[in-house]
Amino acid sequence: MALVWTAELDTGIELIDQQHRKIVDYINQLEEVDRSGDRAGVGKVLHELLDYTISHFAFEENLQEEAGYRFAKPHRKVHELFTRRAKEYVANFEAGQDVTEEVHGMLSAWLVNHIKRDDADYVGAVKENMQHIIKEKERKGRGWLSRFFR
Ligand SMILES: [Fe+2]
């Protein structure tokens, strides 16, 4: 069944939400291409999905570290465990196994859970940090402007 985006998956950080939506699209694509029986197509989507997810994780981890999020380390661990599992699935697929249904089920459940619980938890810290950075820039900007108009 296609994974449908619902408001409760929104974290409120636009870039993160865009990336999560893209992952959901990949998961749905995986199901579609599997239904058409195109094995090479499944392999292509699997690889794209894995690559995209890994770079999304790195993006999240950077945001969390910059914000000094207190659970940045355990969050990174969760990402690592997931990545290891996903790579195993891809290896099994390449060894000729039919893993698509299992991967699809695991991905859908894991992602929804992870976004709602783990990702929702870091949003506060990251948003606060973003606002701090914006304020700093404004403050510096004013400093420069005030010198200009002196
Ligand atoms: Fe995450």
From TrEMBL:
Gene3D superfamilies: Hemerythrin-like. It comes from the Bacteria. Residues 11-124 form the Hemerythrin-like domain. The lineage of its organism: Bacteria, Pseudomonadati, Pseudomonadota, Gammaproteobacteria, Pseudomonadales. Keywords: Iron, Metal-binding. SUPFAM superfamilies: Hemerythrin-like. This is Bacteriohemerythrin. CDD domains: Hemerythrin. The keyword Iron applies. PANTHER family: BACTERIOHEMERYTHRIN. InterPro entries: Hemerythrin (IPR050669), Hemerythrin-like (IPR012312), Hemerythrin-like_sf (IPR035938), Hemerythrin_metal-bd (IPR012827).
